[in-house]
Amino acid sequence: MERSFIILKPSCLKRALVGEIISRFEKKGLRIVQLKVARLPREKVEELYQQHAGKPFYERLVDFMTSDRVVLMVVEGRNAIDVVRRMVGATDPVEANPGTIRGDLALDKTDNLIHACDSPESYEREVRIFFDERELSE
Ligand code: CMP
């Protein structure tokens, strides 16, 4: 069964949207494999977003992601990576379709509520930054 790696960005805890978002994934039929709350160190966020280093929005993005606690999640299900990305919606919440998480609940491009891996390769790379082998063998 495929797995997806998800981060609920700091505004999810601040706006009390964690339950709403997790509930959408559960109702869809995705199984929660791991879930934890953490304040991310700058180095881990820089590693996560290494492909964006140097872009105009990069510093703002890293500052935002380290500004407060996030929720780290691994979910599992059939075609989980694609299913999660469809449920999350387009990167820019202005363009995200209604019915998607960003389309319904976000407006800002940096603070677009949620990050999700976009391929099996990015899943493998990203999940290892935040979870160890033992946590993933549950
Ligand atoms: P995320 O899915 O976390 O992956 C990279 C993030 O960079 C993205 O969501 C946005 O929050 C942010 N991002 C991407 N492009 C832009 C942009 N043009 N302006 C501001 N932020 C961006």
Provide a short characterization of the protein structure.
With 138 residues, the chain is of the alpha+beta class. The protein contains 8 helices and 4 strands; from the N terminus they run βααβααβααβαα. The protein is globular, with a radius of gyration of 14 Å.
Describe the structure.
The chain has helices at residues 10-14, 18-28, 42-48, 58-65, 80-88, 101-105, 120-130, 133-136; strands spanning 2-8, 31-38, 70-77, 114-116. It has 138 residues and is an alpha+beta fold. The chain has a single domain (2-132), classed as Nucleoside diphosphate kinase-like domain (Alpha-Beta Plaits). Strands 2-3-1-4 form a 4-stranded antiparallel sheet, sandwiched between helices. It is globular and about 35 Å long. The model has no long low-confidence stretch (mean pLDDT 97). The chain binds adenosine-3',5'-cyclic-monophosphate. Adenosine-3',5'-cyclic-monophosphate binds next to loops.
Q: Count of helical segments?
A: 8
Task: Tell me the count of domains.
Answer: 1
CATH topology: Alpha-Beta Plaits
Shape, per Cα inertia axes: globular
Task: Give structural attributes.
138 residues; alpha+beta; Alpha-Beta Plaits; four-stranded antiparallel beta sheet; binds adenosine-3',5'-cyclic-monophosphate; nucleoside diphosphate kinase activity; nucleotide-binding; magnesium
